[in-house]
Design a protein that fits this description.
mainly beta; disordered C terminus
Length: 156
């Protein structure tokens, strides 16, 4: 916002607790963002708060440059699944390439107060005291066929 007045910007990194914090004032309202990452749990958590009497209103969405993707939102969750676009351009023929790499990302949004809704692949939160966003992502790297892996790894 070009006309908004930002002040009191502060960034901290708490290594002992793995929390990164950003706080600032915009037009007299203090906003705070806290980020937490857990490698063993494969999750990123973002907590948004403000001291506004009207609460926080945000739209949470996922985007990807990959062409073959599906993004849906239901309840308080956004799910994106897809296939990476080849580096040399999209020259795929047929469907055999779908046996290769796939990816998925999921975002769950929790709000304290206010209203939450799923709209057009996004989550909209209005008037919340607090918004907490949980995000996890994964991909599948298949070097050999699944039937071969089942024989080696005893997967049933």
């Amino acid at each position: 916002c070009p006309d908004c007045a930002y002040s009191d910007y502060n960034r901290t990194l708490d290594i002992d607790n793995s929390i990164h914090t950003v706080s600032y004032k915009e037009s007299g309202i203090t906003y705070k963002r806290e980020y937490f990452m857990s490698y063993p749990d494969n999750v990123m958590v973002i907590r948004l708060t403000s001291d506004s009497k009207d609460g926080i209103s945000r739209t949470i969405a996922l985007e990807s440059l990959h062409k073959t993707k599906n993004i849906i939102s239901e309840g308080n969750t956004i799910t994106m699944t897809g296939y990476p676009t080849p580096v040399g351009g999209d020259k795929r023929v047929g469907d055999h390439w779908k046996n290769g790499l796939r990816y998925a990302q999921q975002v769950m949004v929790r709000n304290d107060g206010g209203k939450i809704s799923a709209v057009d692949g996004m989550i909209k939160v209005a008037g919340a005291k607090e918004i907490v966003i949980f995000m996890s992502a994964a991909n599948v790297w298949m070097i050999v066929t699944t039937s071969f892996l089942r024989k080696i790894l005893w997967i049933r």
